[in-house]
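thread from #wetlab-drylab

HS: before we spend reagent money on co-crystallization trials with S-adenosylmethionine, can we at least see a predicted complex? here's what I'd submit
DV: go for it
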Amino acid sequence: MPNRIKTVTNPKEFFFSENSYPNKSLGQNFIKDLRVIDRIIELAELSSEDEVLEIGPGLGALTLALTDNAGKVVAIEKDKKLVKHLSELFRDYPNVKLVHQDALKADFSSFYSGKKMKAISNLPYSVSSPILFKLLQAREYFSCMVLMLQLEVGERITACPGGKTYGSISVLLQTFMDITTEFRVHPASFWPKPKVDSIVLKLVPLKVPRAAVSDEKLYEKVVRAAFSSRRKMIGNSLQSIMSRDSARELLELSGIDKTRRAETLTIEEFGVLVDKVSLIEKQSMS
Ligand code: SAM
């Protein structure tokens, strides 16, 4: 096996030879089970026409498979040492663009060439939620996303109303994207082994959101406020952003009982709730 392939499939060997150790704060758990990579590639249904954005290429194991199956790959990596390794590895790959940057600060739309991209990543767990929200905001530039996450985060994203795991992340992502749970990955598939299982999700931006949302910022603000205190009734939790009278009026106009808790509201009900905000006194909102 050529050396460079060995280093990406044997992350331990790479770090030993560098006399260093993966950076925990950067969520560095590298895939060593190539079957996981095959399944991700299959799910992404790649063709030579596709342009891929990968966040956190690491040692390049997934990136290599992406370059074999897609037309172009843009890979954003924060760790300088890994960027150096990746630059070597992909020196002769004209279809790979390496970006040494913090993905949280990147403008994903700047990688858009006019053809919708596919976001494919084993996300750094330390920043998976903020990256998900960045991808959500940039969804118009993506045809789909295949993302590996911590199981617990994946469960929150796909949760249904009524359950303990249903929260603002479930509502905000499911309003705008079709999300399917694809497969679970055991910690032994990575080096170093994470403490928890992982899950691969496929997210497809919807042409028409599940709730009619005219002001996305306001929608996010109201949804987050509703879940700000899970034990509180919605009439009380909404008081974190509006007066008690406005909250009562808003819930009456929306036909939602003020004694319900946020986790019982469907996405459509959140849509109605936010739609009616314009009818109450906006000045009373903080
Ligand atoms: N793709 C590789 C794999 O599957 O083996 C590595 C995945 S590892 C879970 C996450 C990668 O994201 C690491 O390489 C880490 O350095 C990188 N990373 C962490 N935070 C980042 C950030 N804010 N922006 C870009 N890359 C980041």
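DV: The pocket of S-adenosylmethionine is lined by residues 26-31, 55-58, 61-62, 76-79, 82, 102-104, 122, 124, 127 (CB under 6 Å).
HS: ok that's useful, forwarding to the group
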